[in-house]
Amino acid sequence: MLSNHKRLLLAAVAAGGLSVAADFDETRLRTTLAGGPLGGVTASGSVDFQLRPSSGDRSFRLEVEGLNLPAGTTLQVFVNNEPLGRLIVSGPPARGGELELASRDGASVPKLEPDDVVSVRGTGGVLLSGVLQRPILDDSPITPAPTAAPLLAATVPDDSRVL
């Protein structure tokens, strides 16, 4: 059963006043990793970080795919320019890799914060990067908001159709 405090919090979120993680006992940060094309192919990826205050457990999961690199290539993962770990590129069809760290398994997982920058680097520099943000209640990843106000409807002068 939800306490009055949690009901008020959920009501504020539903009204658009707050953005919080879905579980009240965890901190969750996510980002989508993006970068420029490499040999005509643009890779993609994602990061999910979780901190459970009640147990102190921390987990970090990074996945990348679509890397136009030879299988077996080692890539480095950084957070705020500090090395965190490495991944090995797999062969086709995924041509990707992952890095999973969990403190409950003995791994050293730093405490991450919103706006921390995660990057995947090869010998030539940064291949992919993203900025960690808190997810909204529907558990979808945060995507950057457009800087201009959204256009709700527009009239086209030629034939007066509404878009």
CATH class of the domain at 21-131: Mainly Beta
Mean pLDDT, all residues: 79
Instruction: Give the DSSP E fraction (strand runs of 2 or more residues).
Output: 25-35%
Structural class comes to: mainly beta
Shape: globular
Instruction: Tell me roughly what share of residues is in helical segments.
Output: under 10%
C-alpha end-to-end distance: 44 Å
Walk me through this protein's architecture:
By secondary structure, the protein is mainly beta. The chain is 7% helix and 35% strand. A four-stranded antiparallel sheet has the order 1-2-3-6, with no helix packed on it. Strands 5-4-7-8 form a four-stranded antiparallel sheet, with no helix packed on it.
Brief synopsis:
The protein has about 160 residues and is mainly beta. Helices cover about 5% and strands about 35% of the residues.
Keywords:
4-stranded antiparallel β-sheet; 163 residues; disordered N terminus; 1 helix; disordered C terminus; Immunoglobulin-like
